[in-house]
Amino acid sequence: MQADERTGRDTRAAEEPVTILTVAREAGVSKTTASDALRGSGRVSERTREAVARVAERLGYVPNGSARHLRKASTGTIGLHVPEVLTRSSYYMSFVFGVVEQAARHDYDVTLITSGQRRSRPPRVDGLVLGDPLGGDPVVESLMATGLPTVSCERFPGSRQADGVVWSEHAAMLVRLLDHLRESGASRPALIVAGDESDWAASVHRGYLEWCAAHEVAPLVRRVSFDASGDEVRAAARALLDARQAGGPLDALVCAPAGAAAEVAPLLRETGVRLASCVDNAATRQSDPPITAIDLRPKEAGASCAELLFELLSGSAPMGTERVHPIELNIRASTRPHP
What we know:
- The chain is an alpha/beta fold.
- The protein is built from 12 helices and 12 strands.
- The chain has helices spanning 20-27, 31-39, 46-59, 65-71, 90-105, 138-144, 170-183, 199-214, 230-245, 260-268, 282-286, 298-314; strands spanning 77-82, 109-114, 128-131, 150-153, 164-167, 189-193, 221-223, 252-255, 274-277, 292-295, 321-324, 328-330.
- It has a 6-stranded parallel β-sheet, sandwiched between helices. It has a 6-stranded mixed β-sheet with strand order 7-6-8-9-10-12, sandwiched between helices.
- Strand 8, helix 10 (260-268) and strand 9 (274-277) form a beta-alpha-beta unit.
- The longest helix has 17 residues, at 298-314.
- The radius of gyration is 26 Å and the shape is elongated.
């Protein structure tokens, strides 16, 4: 055996391909034992597993991902669906990166599917991740009808449910945000929110209404489309401000859609109305003043969805598993008490 003095690896790796048979021969075990040891499966002792791993590292062995997927009768790919209207959102870009990075750790590729893609056959993937699926989306309905293992980020507001769900306590976090506004001196917050076709938007709306009922505050809500433009959001904010000028004691505004708070910030600068966002991003952090926002941690959410899907595929998690994804409230100058 010839070893490189600097790395300790067998120099034969540069002369001939190192296969699982090479590793098995060097470790003094069978091919099946070597394969099970490296995959973490089978009845292999921890001592043997560690010994095989050391040999594989020394030889520079790299598993053949394509061959492994072929043996498992899998495609080596998972599908990721996000609503087409949201692919411009920085939240969903981060979510996608989280899914892709986690898939890479499992030696899988990711196929992106949007609601604009009408298919005559199911996608050739081993399973699906659905990013905040919208109720009434026919593509989501058809994907969930394929029978493929499916994980959704938030629950699907339709007749079907995914095999696994990663969800966050949006209503509870909004109540926490509204409590902060009340402590800062705001007595009647208003809400701009999308429709209930999204479980996330419906949860935000529910949390707002529950808080208003608990504090005997008359709700002030303006609904906008899920992919609301800046003009639509600003029009909703102006309508709420007009109601305030007519005598309504509006003194805080919470914007649910991503990017909405930054769009309306210029309208509120001279009004004394506090401003908060249900989605944190670069615009809320860099606004003047910086905007209080809920950090949904989208990259981590994507990674969590992908990991749950792989656990469903391997059988290490049962169908119907639900996991709570933690989110955070970042308090900034836009909602602090005025001098």
